[in-house]
Fold each of these.
Amino acid sequence: MFKSFASDALGLSDIGKIIPPSQFNQTDIDDYIFHEDNEKIYFVIKSKSDEYCFTNLAFIHLDGQSATSKKRLLKRYPYRHYAPSDVMIETAGTMDLDVELKFSLGGMAFSIDIDKAQIEGVRDIYKALSAIADKCATIKQNEHILNKSFDSVVGMFGLKALPETVILNLPDIINQTTHQVESSYHERLLHIRQYDFGAVFEHYLRG
């Protein structure tokens, strides 16, 4: 017990280790992955009180209050709603035992201390998160362009200003065209919103 309190006081309990893929199924956080929906773990960082997990779909934090408490809070941040930003690494000084991986998700800041001996793995996570941040920004930009285009096309018909009863009595060709425009819009939106980043993680994983 004294060792646990001492490590908490010194901050050593906060230093995480990157877990090898062969041990993912031994982590507590593995029980909360949506394996049924093809969610896959790519990185797990484990300290004495916390587990941090990066999957193809989300960042997940199993938050422990302290190394001596059994209470834990599971927090899930899907990239669809919490785009990464401000991804940084704070390298270790001469006397430091850890490096810090810093990033934000939907405006919330995170800082994870990781054993400096695992700096190569930290770089891999940094690269993957940076790439995901860029892709999320591109998705939002493409959504904005698509929405503007859709509004312009719909505006050409002036349908938004017409009562529904009038629209129903318009020639079939106009209704069919409108339906095609809306169908094409939704298909394009689904194509743009690709928030499964498994290929990004696999690109930066080290063998």
Amino acid sequence: MTTVTAVTVFHSAGDAAGFGPWAQDLLASARLSPGHRAGVVSVRDDPQLDWAVAVTFSHEDQLHGWLDGTSRAEVLAEGQRRGYWRRSADLILTEDAPTPSGIGLFRHAVAAGKEPDFRRMQARLSSAAVGLPGYEGTVLLPADQHGEWSSVVRFRTGPQLSAWLRSAERTEALMGLRSTLSKDFAAASNTTPFATTVRVEDGQTLMTPNWKSAMLVLLVLYPTVMLLSRFLGPVLDRAGAEPWLALWVSQIVSVTAMQWWLMPSVSRPFRRWLDPVDGSGARIGLAGAAVVVGLYALTLTVFATVQELQFWDYAG
């Protein structure tokens, strides 16, 4: 299910000890709204890390219903009386659209017992960015239900963010960060249900090469059609469906399954290969293609040798 998250960054001019309890009031107002999925307060144990609240809803219209609602407005008004003012407009992050220009969203699988070191390394990264053109701050969000931490780095423009990503200062700071992770961090990107990943780099929208998307779609489409022909086709025949109607129903089931379940599941292990930036190198391109071809061979072997799956002459 697609979710949408709003990250609200606050000035740190108010009472530091009182921000946490007040932020919990803000999260409580979100929990009472339809579509609420999760909410967290950012890590604030270092002055280089921003104070922020992140709230996730099932759908964007539900999120905006809370953002524009009276309950949130009342909590924000109380926060302003305590000195907690919003630093900028709410940052909206969705799973099916690129991150806004100038925003870097990174996910981290932190190794067990390394959480304090990880937080220190994030503060070090933020310190390294201070003074660079366009830098506006870093938000560190604690682990979600999947155990992944998130960091949100904010620059004024996309090119300024790209300059930071390529900078020597960041490269040096990352050396310590990687030692705290169980696997390398990943820049958040958005992959469509049919295996096209969208990234914004230097203000330009980049997409997965068509040949990669086509290879992955074929990997899922072939076994899906074969299995539907074997198991759904006979059911429709027994129900008396005409061939033209049976094929239409089968296509509905196929597209629905691929759109919401099969393609997202299969695309996940190939996330780096599909990424138009991280997967752009010839080595990773060939390696991913070789894996897909190997999976082609496996599925062909299965359907060629397992008689029970051969719909064309299965005797029942």
Amino acid sequence: MFDLDRWQEIFSALSKNKVRTFLTAFGVFWGIFMLLVMMGAGDGLEKGAKKDFGSFATKALYMWTQSTSKPYKGLPPGRGFYFNNSDTEAMSQNVEGIDILCPRNQLGGFRGENNVIRGKYVGAFSVYGDMPEIIKVDPINVFEGRFLNQNDITGKRKVCVIGKRVFDLLFEKGEQPIGEYIQIKGVYFQVIGVYDQPFKNNSSERDLENIYIPFSTFQQAFNYGNVVGWYCVTAKPEVMVANLHDNIFAVLADRHKIHPEDTRAIGSWNSEKEYLKLNSLFIGINFLIWIVGIGTLLAGVIGVSNIMLVVVKERTKEIGIRKAIGANPYSIISQIILESTFLTSIAGYIGLLLGVLVIEIVNNLVGEVGNMFTNPQIDFNIAITATIILVVAGAFAGLIPARKAAAVNPVMALRNET
């Protein structure tokens, strides 16, 4: 391994035909380079696709009322109904596996906006009635003041938490918002907190135009009575959201006299189902990347093996002379394998460096800007593992030519004029 003469012989053999050596090394280089670039591209695509989830709970279930589609217990189809506070209590008592249960209301309905006034400033924003636990489902960063708490719910306090965009439009730059009042439909609410999004996604700007007030206050201030607009529920870690949905549906269907098979009466959205679909998609993409990458690497390694066979054939006379003067098979085999491993290692290392460099350049250029391609990166451990596998494969690539070289008959080799 550390024999200087052996290394001089390796460099001499490789330099005799520079074009052939370069093309052989390029096949290996291209294999590891393309594997890393595809891995980085897959990582960036996956992050971009998952960016809308951000830190949002991936085991969440949203349920809302729609019109019934089947007659049941003497009631006609097409009947409308509302969730209410007693539904919340019934779900909490009768459905196992619920981690967080948040009844919610929105002023003006889904995506409804309302004029909010502060002095001479007016803006149209979304107003939500929420429980304090909603921050665990859809996290926000309260950078001034605080979020809603249980005392706000119990005391039906007229307080609110506003988004940064709301603050920018209703307050002067540098003005302190905490303790100030805003007017919503003639009702004044005291600002107790201002929030920002902890991550950026396609809807982050719109999410900063929300105003959160206590759920109990919302019902009282805007004459909602005991109406609940929809529910946000999260499942415990060991519970599948789909199973939780079925259990909740059974309870709500019984309470509102809905046919057990009427799937249109209660709308729902299962974040776990969507997240698992996305994960399955990228498992498939990553598998395809590895198949293509390993195939490219194998092509390069096979190229090394073929070239080493040619090298052995060209050096048949030299090998015969070495065996005639006493060289043992091990020295012949180790020489060929070392040449193969050296060529593969150098080409693989250069491919590793350039692959990482290209991904870092793309990362700096794209960063957080892309909607569907974000922060491409490479797991360095995987990159090193791939390189080690490549080196081992290079050693095996030289094994067949080495065994052929060791089997050379000295007498026949000396007769060979090639």
